[in-house]
Amino acid sequence: MTRTFEGLLAEAEAADVEGWGFSWLTGRATEERAPWGYTRLVADRVRHATALLDLETGGGEVLAEIPGLPATTWATEYWPPNLAIARRRLEPAGITVVDGDPTRLPFDDSSFDLVISRHPVAPPWAEAARVLRPGGTLLCQGIGPNSMIELAEVVAGPRPPGTRPDPEQTAEIVRQTGLIVTDLRTAALRAEFYDIGAVVYFLRKVIWTVPDFSVAKYRTALAALHARLRTDGPFVAHAQRFLLEARRPD
Question: Alpha carbon 217 to chain centroid distance?
Fold first, then answer.
């Protein structure tokens, strides 16, 4: 049975968008995975770590997948809904999740030999460098400034330049903290949306794509995209990702 435009909107507006799980989109949207395999890289680095910090952990999804975490493992998260989810998910495993004020992390200098972060919004690079031990590693998967620009523009029209630093700018910011950047890679990952409900869910969850998004405000554009999906098939956009690895000098 073909679902109506209004029915798809209502379903997507009612969906829970807390945390960073995307299982609601199964069968409704796809996105290529980054070729470097962030979770795999974290698992590899963890084998050599004795103290780990996950910055902006979201709902704790990455840490929950990593086996053999160090006994000293902490996470930060500053968005209250995700903070509550991360604590429910991680604290039973002995991982403390703290409210992550990016201006000053609540840890002593040189506390961790591995600091990780996936898709940070306001990464405290100077603080990450401060809490790293000499010889320690920073590993981050970031979002490029024009990620999903095709989707943003089909819904909201031409977008202003992205406010996020691009990968090279981010690398330079990290270098200015005194860390040595040892790896920097980029990827454009194909994403497909199969119905308008998937679009609405994604825009509600990934709020920086169209910061002022609401169904009421963009109903006309959503209706046009719904018709396009019905006639032309999946809408294609591209997620921009980068991998940055850096080391604190010995």
Answer: 25
